[in-house]
Amino acid sequence: PFNNDRGDRPARDGERRSFGSDRGDRKPFGDRPARDGDRRSFGNDRGERGGSWEERPARVPNAKDIRSANRPDRERSPEIDEDVTGRELDRATGHQIKTLEEQSAGWVAKHLVMAGRLIDIEPELAFQHALAASRRGGRLSAVREAVGLTAYAAGHYGEALREFRTYRRISGSNVHLPVMADCERGLGRPDRALDMVRSPEAQDLDAPGKVELAIVASGARADLNQLDAAVSELEIAQLDINRAFSYSPRLFRAYAEALSAVGRTEEADKWARQALVAENALGVGDFAEPEILDLGWDEQEEEAARKPRFQKPAPETDVVTAETETVIVEAAAADVEHDDVELDDAESDYFESDDAESDIDSAEEDEERNETAEADNEGNDSQHG
Predict the structure, then answer these.
(1) What domains can be seen in the chain, in order of their start residue?
(2) Is pTM, for the whole model, over 0.70?
């Protein structure tokens, strides 16, 4: 990130605001261009698109005005995958789209889903879809946000900056301030990026937002060849080597790179290692669990489903053991600093699941019913005898 390679771009991973059902409250950003891990989604359908856009010439947006998308000589809108319905959008975005006419609403929704589906793999095409959505839904904040994010991903920083400003006017939210500052860097204006960092609006950002803004500020200092200042920009309250939140791996790694740039290699190595420890503890990055989709029952599942539901309770010695590491990790899913939880060395907790308890209760009830039935049968036999 200190070679003017835009490596410290606001992150596109982690919990970010989504146009899908997993929509969060904000959009953190980070290293440019971070293309791994969970990505920003305009819809919760992340499947691969059908067909190819390669045969079509890339449309170059007019840098002056988003309304260039409405020119009579514009190219036709990109194709929508057959499986896209528009219902993949999250509820908040869906409510906005419902204010449009029915035909326009379907058009806008489907193009937003496509923009979210493609932003990680074909950002330029995702940008075209967002522009298509803007032709009928340009007054919606969700649409202007989509245009801004896809423009940013495609490297159209001037277009992105304008769209984020429009989004801010419509929504009143400063959540995109870090990426707006990074757009200024992308336009070769690091001084303006630093002005945004010092703006009153920056004080209202939450912890993840402040971290992302600090990373951008550090990159802006590096652009100006102020390498010691680049280190100082990252020495914020959230930089704690003993605590790991969703933003910690990126912050640790950015700090390690800043230290390395000024020759403090031993410290840099320590923070780089801690970034991996944090990723491991949080289950992100290279340590993220693969997504496994259940596509239907197999034969073994069908056979198991036909068997009686009653099973003997498991022995009391069968418990679940939770192995832990020495690290403090983020609790719940909130980026609130006092919600962290410390896990001590070699400490194990034992849990007995609610399902196991319910199975035991069910088994006891069945045994009582069986004993009662046997007693009734014996009484009837004695009477007949």
Answers:
(1) 1-199 (1.25.40.10), 299-384 (no CATH)
(2) no
